Amino acid sequence: MRSFEEILKLCEVDLEFHEAVVELESRESGKSEDLIYANMSYMLDAMEQSVNSAINADFKGRMMEDEARRFERYIAQRDVPLSGKFIAKASHIALSVSQYNANMGRIVAAPTAGSCGILPGLLFAYRDLYGPSRDMLVKALIVAGGVGEVIQKRATLAGAEGGCQAECGAAAAMGSAALVYLEGGSPEASAHAAVLTIKSLMGLVCDPVAGLVEVPCIKRNGTLVSLASLCADMALAGIRSVIPPDEVIDAMRRVGRALPESLRETSKGGLAATPKGRELEKKIFSEVPPMAEI
Amino acid sequence: MALLDIIGPVMVGPSSSHTAGAAKLGRLARRAWNGEVNKVDIFLRGSFASTYWGHGTDKALIGGLLGFMPDDERIRDALEIARQRGLEYRFFAESIDGAHPNSVRFVIYKEDKAMELVGASLGGGVIELQEIDGFSISLSGDLAAIITFHRDQPGVVAAVAGVMAEKGLNIATMRLHRQGRGGRAAMVIEIDGELKESTKDEILNSHSALMRVIFIPSPGGDVR
Domain count of chain B? Predict the structure, then answer.
């Protein structure tokens, strides 16, 4: 599926967002709709496993401490955290899964490994607080996948090509659309939630310190769940992006291309190039076991 | 498979290119070698050489050589497991002009036998086998495959395809590579389904220009 327009056109003829995505996918790949649902159901199981493992795992970072655990303790102490129960929980899960990924845990890339915490954060915080059926969660995952596919086709999902807007940004947009579905919003509202999210982080750079998926990637997973949630609420309230959804994604592609190479996963700019970033990089490389050069 | 490209793959972190792709490359090398790997030298190129440690690329490559899939959590302990299973490995860094930025060369040894393979991780966990024993080819590893080495002569393709038709093997893709007219040539055939070892000799004997045939089992299958 190459556009939101294509998906929403099918929805006009009485389909839900996820049904349109599955129909288009089936048409393009020749796979049966049952197989597509089964595949996504498998991915939801794998995602749930990653959440369960990640929440119980201790994190040993090269640069940062176990911030997921710290946040968990903080949430437990407060009746209602300032950002609300849902966002706090989603953020805790997102931090945990992202830390787990950095420690070579088994995760689902959604859409990438570096942004793998956001979608499980939103989906499983929603499950824990609002108790949707498992079937609803599979369908929400398909909504997210459809949004990701439009971004992949019209822009990119690779930080090296489009910056972090293409990884954590895309994950947040996907999650925002999924939340709208779970809350009973229209397909159009899902599309707008996705692009309201993208509009708010357009141009976000990919600047990993020492080239590792740790600083700032893990915390970006933890923070962007909040933007996704708020944009879902706005879309549910009927707020619409003035710029049509597909045009927002096209702008995202052009902005990504306009980013200098130093801000596209090369660790030459942004936070990676700060004095502290450089210091951490130097320390990490000094710990690397020597390898014979030939 | 488009949706599964977005939601998925299930993998051991932290990087789809440097960890999941590396594990797939190790496993593809094992599939091409078609046996337990006991001794291997691994030459890392480009970004694999400079950032291997932070992404567990070494563990992923060794895990793949041990037969682990990219989502197998044993990858984390692959170096230790290799020692327990008697897989001897050495890592080197090499810089080669024109090499893919995320690529690796394996040299697998056993007594008087050796095989050299070059592969690249193209991003998002997608890989490509680029060379076998000095011969440039292109293979994704997504399916079972037959690779023939032969002299560039008329009738080779027909002879090999004839054996395959007889065995009911469906050709998914086919690609010819040659080093010059009448010179050394290779044919890479991806097939649906699995290969039987006995078919290998029949293919080898189907034309006098054929010198060598390599079978690569499907990604889900392992060495026999």
Answer: 2
